[in-house]
């Protein structure tokens, strides 16, 4: 359930996205709010500026949370973001231990506004293969 406090923090994430546009960056913004609701850190999309396909604000903040927050605090921290996180960012968010994500635009709404946002081709994946060989470094690391 999205509360009035959530809406205020979402408005701030949208403002971060709007500010990104004034800097020549893509219009996506995010922030993390700690357990007490205070803003911990903000970020916007710098994919073009940094020439880095992973420079989404959600992934930047997930990485920050994994580095800077203890697991208990991360679990009670919420990410507010102007658009629903993509698959790449969702993976980072899960691994960071963040407890909640609140977003403004859903992916399908974003694609309606900007069809190019949904134009990613499928990538073929083949496997699994070479189990006995591939397990050697895994066993060496996890079962010393």
Q: Please bin the fraction of helical residues.
A: 40-55%
Estimate nothing, just give the exact number of structural domains: 1
Order of helices and strands: HEEHHHEHEHH
Give the overall pLDDT as a whole number. Answer: 97
Query: Quick one: biggest sheet?
Result: 4 strands, mixed
Distinct helical segment count: 7
The dominant shape is globular
Q: Count the strands?
A: 4
**CATH class call:** Alpha Beta
Low-confidence stretches: none
Fold-level CATH name: Cytidine Deaminase, domain 2
Structural class, please? alpha+beta
Strand content: 15-25%
Question: Order of strands across the widest beta sheet?
Answer: 2-1-3-4
Level-2 CATH architecture: 3-Layer(aba) Sandwich
Cα-atom Rg, whole angstroms? 18 Å
Q: How far apart lie the N and C ends?
A: 46 Å
CATH homology group: Cytidine Deaminase, domain 2
In short:
GO terms for molecular function: catalytic activity. It contains 7 helices and 4 strands; from the N terminus they run αββαααβαβαα.
Using brief descriptors, characterize the structure shown.
single chain, 144 residues, alpha+beta, Cytidine Deaminase, domain 2, four-stranded mixed β-sheet, 16% strand
